[in-house]
Amino acid sequence: MAHATLTPTSTARYVGVADWWGFHVWIEEEDGARRALPYHGEARLASFAWGRNGLAARELARALIEDATGSPALAERHCRELTHSVIAELPVLGFELTRQDVLGWLESEPAAA
User: Could you say which DSSP state residue 7 is in?
Assistant: First the structure.
């Protein structure tokens, strides 16, 4: 699947941290800038989740895909599959993924072809 949306515009790391105050996901850009991963879902959630399935994990998948591609449509189409194959398998205490990891998964996803 060769779309312009699947070409990373910059190198970024998604860093998930589980601590006393909850689950937090940061985007760390190559220039050193750090910001929270924005939530785009419709359900009111206190935070994202990983290391399991469920709504909060699916919303993390949706947010990662939308941030990596800039496409809400791709995020909606593939968030469930990413949840089951990647997000649910992440370590509960924290994770690191790159933008390229997310794009690579999308390119290898059979439904994407």
Answer: S
Tell me which of 113 and 10 has the higher pLDDT: 10
- DSSP assignment string, 21-64: TEEEEEEEETTS-EEEPPP--SS--S----SS-SHHHHHHHHHH
Q: Are 55 and 42 in contact (CB under 8 A)?
A: no
Contact between residue 31 and residue 11 where contact means Cβ atoms under 8 Å apart? no
Q: Which residue has the tokens 């910059």?
A: 10
Structure token digits, residue 83: 């949840």
User: pLDDT tens digits, residue range 67-112?
Assistant: 999 999 999 999 999 999 999 999 999 999 999 999 999 999 765 4
Q: Among residues 73, 9, 84, 74, which one has the least CA distance to residue 50?
A: 84
Q: For the purposes of burial, counting CB atoms within 10 Å of the CB of 110, is it exposed (0-12), middle (13-18) or buried (19 or more)?
A: exposed
* Residue 16 CB coordination number (10 Å): 24
Residue extents of the structural domains in the chain: 8-112
